[in-house]
Amino acid sequence: MSDENQVNENSKNEQLGQYRVDDSDKKMTTNQGLKVSEDEFSLTAGERGPTLMEDFHFREKLTHFDHERIPERVVHARGFAAHGEFELYESMKQYTKAKFLQDTSKKTSVFVRFSTVVGSRGSADTVRDVRGFATKFYTEEGNYDLVANNMPVFFIQDGIKFPDIVHAIKPEPHNEMPQASGAHDTFWDFVANNQESAHQVMWLMSDRAIPRSFRMMQGFGIHTFRFVNEEGVSHFVKFHWIPKLGVHSLVWDEAQKIAGKDPDFNRRDLYDAIENGEYPEYELGVQIIEEKDEFAFDFDILDSTKIWPEEDVPVKVIGKITLDQNVDNFFAETEQVAFHPGHVVPGIDFSNDPLLQGRLFSYLDTQLIRLGGPNFHEIPINRPVCPFNNNQRDGYNRQTINEGKVTYHNNSMAANTPSTANGQQGGFVHYQEKVEGRKIRARSESFNDHFSQPKLFWNSMSEPEKMHIKQAFAFEVGKVKNKSVQQQVVDMFTNVDIELATAFAKEIGATPPAKGGSNITKASPALSQENTMKSVLTRKVAVLMNNGFNEAEVSPILAELKTAGLHPEIISEKLGMITGTNGNTLQVDHSFTTTDSVLFDAIYIVGGTSDSKVFNKNTTYFLTDAYKHYKPIGATHDGIMLLNENNIPNSPGVVIGSNLQNFAGNFVQAIAAHRHWNRDVI
């Protein structure tokens, strides 16, 4: 075996290459390599006789099929992933001895899995839910897993309550409904009776719960970790992923329709972007607090229901991941990848966050049942790129063939190898935090403030975002059948904001609060998506065209949209070709039957001189949905007439091509805004 300091310099992609198999142009064999002569018929006693037990090929094939499914994840079952690499902008040697955070000249292979939390593997992508953002770094010192979500806080403060929140939000056990939704009695009963959940629920009711794309979604490590440097000095740290395309969301009506039209909307978006060479990028940021400042804030930095406001603790951007390769096999990679917050490298350690402490047990434990035992680290997608040596042996699915007969530590027959490594030799040494106290089941008083930061979040929202939160509460709590639970929720969120509680109380028929609310006035502008970066890159534009379109004027506009980084896709009555006024033809990408307005970021209506009733009827549907979802709409030529016929007013985000020289530029600007919330939509 290689020396323990030798690092496999091959990328994770190259390492996985030895396991990839292309079955095309190959002869069929059994799993033992025996060539198969017949795969259509079982071995029987005569043409009409019974199947014979000796048919080993039949039994192998059926046995493997019977065992193809492994248990899905209890949470985060619905996921999608990609390979990429991490590059460091600035050395963090001052703070951590983690090698992959010190050398800016080296790139580290990563595997990132995005997911929803509540739904099963077969649920839709666009449900209202928390999203997972888990990153596995294949470093020279071992695998490091940053297991993040797209929201920076969690429902609970202690890991012992994790089964409770999951049981509450999952489908109710008596009828297994609803799927992938918290809009039911048990979830909101949990919320009302576990008020530490208030902050997370505010995020869940916000636009953050229905992201436009995995590529336009933040990630947060949630917990407080430690950076530890070579001198043993510790700093508290939180991790952030910041998408280069900005943070953008769907609207609720749109999200519900997409769930029916394309339940794979988010995963398809990620897959297509990578296939098109439009690689998603996310910058890694860190918030750092010195140990001496642990108690310097008006919140407990170990409380997972609290953020560190960026205005108080700035985010320092230190690197970037780029996702540049889709998986070759969903099951082998995305489904079998095993993340664990306890997979750390020297220089990254844990805090006493009680939720994190619980996850350090739970994640390892769940892999044992999902992946068939303790050898899940040997599955190719989980295998480190550096050598690993220890005395662990056997178990289900063991891949390593260990030589020799010594399998214990402290031995003379193998010169006491494999031997341990001290800190100077690269061994992991836990931070020596002083710990003392009585054995108790209790929590610090500093964890008891459940409403200041939900109020901070509310204060930070723009008016459209506040309206969406009110509507989300009205929908979700309105689905609750138990009137007592509904009233408890109203009473609970009166502690956050009386305007909010009054608004949704009236919608669901509960008693509005007579008094209450919080006097917190602090806000954090960084929390509002209105303050995020705006970009047109990779946005999809539905171009509604029919035969007889003015090609001489339309084609240059489409070219300008593509140059700006947009994806215009032609939609017409039927698939095939449409013919312009000069006789040239264009390929139709979608028919009205095969796509929908909600699957696009903007609508450009061109029309055509030979418009039919079918075209006009479908155009009405596309325009109406796009308008009420606050999306940009552009129209030129015959499209202007169709815009007028559908009573689409000249309002914000509606661009009329009366001046064709400026149309494309104005339309691109409208698309960059993402949504036009100041539009009057009834």
What can you tell me about this protein's structure?
Its EC number is 1.11.1.6. The chain has 682 residues and is of the alpha/beta class. The chain is 27% helix and 16% strand. The protein contains 17 helices and 18 strands. It has helices at 12-17, 56-66, 162-169, 185-193, 198-204, 252-261, 265-275, 330-335, 354-370, 452-460, 463-478, 483-494, 498-508, 551-563, 613-628, 638-645, 660-672; strands at residues 79-88, 107-116, 131-139, 142-149, 219-220, 225-228, 234-243, 281-290, 316-326, 348-350, 540-545, 567-572, 576-579, 585-588, 590-591, 602-607, 633-635, 654-656. Strands 1, 2, 3, 4, 5, 6, 7, 8, 9 and 10 form a ten-stranded antiparallel beta sheet that branches. It is globular. The N and C termini lie far apart (70 Å).
DSSP strand count: 18
Estimate the mean pLDDT confidence.
Answer: 93
> What is the CATH domain class of the largest domain?
Mainly Beta
Task: Find the CATH topology of the largest domain.
Answer: Catalase HpII,  Chain A, domain 1
- What is the architecture of the largest domain at the second tier of CATH? Beta Barrel
The count of helical stretches stands at 17
Classify the helix fraction into a percent range.
25-40%
CATH superfamily annotation of the largest domain: Catalase core domain
Enzyme class: oxidoreductase
GO molecular function, one term: catalase activity
Biased composition (Polar residues): 1-16
Family: Belongs to the catalase family. HPII subfamily.
